[in-house]
Every structure is written in C-alpha cells, then in structure tokens.
Amino acid sequence: MSNPSNPRPDISVKQLTYSHTPDAPPSLRNISIHLPPGSRTILCGANGAGKSTLLQILAGKRLVTAEGADVRIKGKDVFRDSPPGVTFLGTEWALNSAVRSDIEVSHFLDSVGAVNGYNTERRDHLLDILDVDLSWRMHQISDGERRRVQLCMGLMAAWDVLLLDEVTVDLDVLVRDDLLTFLKKDSIARGATILCKNSPPDATHIFDGLGNFPTYIAHMRFGEFVTEPIPWPLTSSSSVPAETAATLPYAAPSSLYRVALQWLTEDREYRRELEKQGKKTRGARNNALVPSDSETFYKKYDYSH
To answer: pTM (2 decimals)?
Structure first.
C-alpha cells in the first residue's frame, strides 16, 4: 500500500525477510509496506504471525542483515541512521527489574524526563488520562498501574512515529478508551503516525472500542501479509483476498471485531490444512505416547492414594 500524493511515507519496508537465528526458518518473509504520515494502522493476526518481530525491527531492536531489505522511518535507515521522534512501547518493559524497584512514580518520571525532555502540560494531561498517582511506589503497584506509568513515561515527549506492541491489554476499559481518544487526536493534530499490534487472547476485550481508531488495518499470518494495510473502514472495493471479501461486513466502524474474528478463523483453518500435511501441529496429538515420561515419574511418587 502506498500513497501517491506523498512521495515519502513515514514507515517504509521493502523486501524484508528475517530469521531469529541463521539456521531457523524466516519469521518474516518478503515484507513490503508503506504507511503515510498521520496514518493509524492496526496489525491483526494470530500469535506467532510476526507482528511483534516487525515492530521490534522498525524500532531498531533487531538487526536485519538480509540482502535487499530496506527498513526506513521518516526516510532514514532504522539501523544506520536512526531517526528521531520514534517511540516504541512493548510488553517487555514491565519485566525489567528497574521498574519494580522501590521508587516513587514522580521521581521515576522526572528521571526519565530529564533525559528525554518533555512538555509539562502534556505530561500532566497524560497523568489525568491514565489516572496515575504520583505518590505510587513502583514496587507496590499492580501490573495495570505499572503499565499506565510506562505509557505516561513513553508518551510525555511528542513522537512522530509511535510503535505499540499490545501495551493497552492491561488497562481497564475506561482508561484504554481515554488513551485511544488521546492518541487519535494527537495523531490528527500533529500528523503523527501510529502502528500497533493486536492479538487474539481475548478478541472482544482487545478490539472493543477500536472501530473508530485506525485509518488502515492489515492481516499477517506466519510471517507474511495476507492483506497488506488497506483503508478502514472497509468498502466493497477494498483490496482483500476474494475468499475473505465474501464474508466480511463492510462500511461499519463497529465491525472491526468481526473482521478480526474472521481473519483469525481463516488463520486457524489454514493451519489445520497444514496439519493434515504434517506441519504446524498444535493441540492434542492422537498418536502421542500415553502416559508420557513425566506422567510416569509423578505417578511413581504420588502418595495421595
């Protein structure tokens, strides 16, 4: 997908293939996308589709060495000429021991702001939206509250490109809705670009309230785009595969959940076809040895009977 009226997209990926290790099969295969400034794109797809890997590469967190691959943000190579104004917020932040230390939230935010710089009015607005208590201590708060602090920290400085890796999942419905409203207004006002991932652990929870947020949606499966970023809401002329188009509801912002559910259903059916060929096997295996070695071990030392 490209925008002929703007010769330089904010996010540009060409011929990207990536493997986590040299001997592993590719996690991403021949990815090419072009997202214009001010766009808000949601990546849909089942777990393992490659969404997080793509976001991490765009953030410069994974080095791509494949010949011919070109990954740029704001026209700059993300590895060799890192562009300013790019913010990545991922789920691994909450696992960092530093954010679970005995430090007051106000001191934590001040220390980050001193390094990155921020607008105090913007910071205070985010504190209200995310309902953050500056007197919280990082080691005493819940995962959801810690996520709010992360978002406030990451969004205090104005960004040009925002990469979100499922960081709204821990938020309650009201805070998530307020945050998405803020991000949409911010994107429109400043022409800033958002690319975010959503996955299916609880599709209703994740996609509820997102219908009016994106300008584009895309579908990834096993490291490839089944549907490259297309304008949202969908219309009868949207560029989706023929077998998908016949089942999708059109031109209804509230139907994003149904579109995502349809795509995930197709992903599962596709994988089941692969399973018939002996590939991508998940779930119970009919020919598995029962009991397993571990079951035999624990049964041997089970004194409850």
So the answer is: 0.83
Separation in Å, CA 163 to CA 70, 85, 107, 176 = 18, 11, 25, 16
Q: CB 17: neighbour CB atoms within 10 A? A: 16
Yes or no: say if 149 and 181 are a contact pair by the CB < 8 Å rule: no
Helix (H) or strand (E) holding 129: helix 120-129
Q: Can you say how many angstroms the Cα of residue 48 is from the centroid of all Cα atoms in its chain?
A: 12
**Residues in a beta bridge with 165:** 197
| Domain interval for residue 275 | 11-83+201-300
Mean pLDDT (10-residue bins), the chain, 305 residues: 61 94 90 96 92 95 88 93 92 77 89 68 93 93 90 92 89 89 96 85 53 92 94 75 59 68 90 81 58 59 55
β-strand 40-44 against 28-35: which pairing, if any? unpaired
Note whether residue 65 is domain-resident. yes
Rounded Cα distance between 145 and 153, Å, is: 12
In the chain, the number of structural domains is 1
28-35 β-sheet, strand order: 28-35, 11-18, 70-73, 76-77
Residue 130 lies in a domain: no
Q: Say how far apart CA 153 and CA 108 lie, in whole Å.
A: 9
Instruction: Give helix 120-129 / helix 173-190 axis angle, nearest 10°.
Output: 150
Determine contact, residues 213/180, Cβ cutoff 8 Å.
yes
Give the CATH number of the domain where residue 217 resides: 3.40.50
Half-sphere exposure in the Cβ direction for 39 (13 Å, CA): 26
In a domain, 237, yes or no: yes
